[in-house]
Amino acid sequence: MPDPMMPEAIDSAEQLRRFEKRIAAGEKIEPKDWMPERYRQQLVRMISQHAHSEVVGMLPEGNWITRAPMLRRKMGLLAKVQDEAGHGMYLYCAAETLGVDRREMIEALLQGKAKYSHIFNYPTLAWADIGVIGWFVDGAAIVNQTMLAKCSYGPYSRANLRICKEENFHKRQGYEIVSTLSSGTPKQREMVQDAVNRWWWPSLMMFGPPDASSPNSAELLRWKIKLHSNDELRQHFVDITVPQAAAVNLALPDPNLRFDEASGHWKFGEIDWSEFYEVIKGNGPCNRERMKARRDADTEGAWVRAAARAYAEKHTDTTTGAGA
Ligand code: 3HC
What we know:
- The protein is mainly alpha-helical.
- 65% of the residues lie in helices and 2% in strands.
- It contains 13 helices and 2 strands.
- It has helices at residues 7-24, 37-56, 58-62, 71-96, 102-110, 127-148, 154-182, 186-205, 217-222, 230-247, 273-283, 287-300, 302-314, and strands spanning 258-260, 265-267.
- It has a two-stranded antiparallel ribbon.
- Strand 1 and strand 2 (265-267) form a beta hairpin.
- Helix 6 runs antiparallel to helix 7 and helix 6 (127-148) runs parallel beside helix 8 (186-205).
- It starts with 6 loop residues before the first helix and ends in a 10-residue tail after the last helix.
- 3-hydroxybutanoyl-coenzyme A binds next to helix 2, helix 6 and helix 9.
């Protein structure tokens, strides 16, 4: 407990009061502004996890670039996977404004100390998975990140604004693939329904554990890093996705799904949270494969980083320290 008679403690209590007043007034906090250390740590945790998710998220879809069924689909998927790399870069930059080094964040991922979204530890077994990922996974990401685009930290809010614009194309691309397959041959319909059945429940888990079991939510909501809780966003995602499934004649794999007139929401069945915790502990179907791919890429890319560093050093003007 800080001693309130100590001048630093008085300063910091006053700084905290002013900081919270700014948050309450809806002001954005910028990198050079005073912020509580805990606010900084929470942002570094979230933004770096988000950046790692974008980068690891390239793997399941990248797997289908060479097998896309036609050139138009291949170009779309290639552009999408490239966008995800870009999102990772915006987010690493946003995290760097909080005083962390990019290499430090990447090391934490490679050593298994940092998390990334559990959803990318599921396999993409068929082409239809690419459509369903765009529809569900990018759809869920848009719901979450539209909120984060309004968060209290300026650089993270602006990064999400740009990410959401691009994610909207991804979702449309995915839904178009789903809609084409669902109105195709019986085999195509079967393939897309199977993908819906496999991705539905893991997609609902993307919003994080239920509010009552979410240790970070209270603090994040208080500082307007999050503006809605995990359960509120999950419900919103279900409410918008149920009519989209009906429009393409696909069934969502939940016998308890029903519209509740009183609340105006679609009620859904129990989520198997034991599966979620197993995946985030490292025991999902593809955790080992994903981490191996990231570690191999890091090792194989070492010469590129060394060459870029050598080039930058060679072209640095030694009198001013500026690059030529
Ligand atoms: N996958 C992996 N870990 C998850 C998770 C998920 N889907 N949901 C929650 N967790 C982890 C949390 O990180 C936390 O662990 P930690 O304290 O060790 O970091 C723990 O489970 C408890 O969860 P909380 O609810 O307390 O955590 P948060 O309040 O931070 O909420 C969150 C979790 C909703 C994921 C939030 O952190 C968030 O919005 N993060 C930023 C967005 C993000 O990372 N999205 C990932 C998807 S990006 C994407 O999908 C790419 C796109 O191209 C499709």
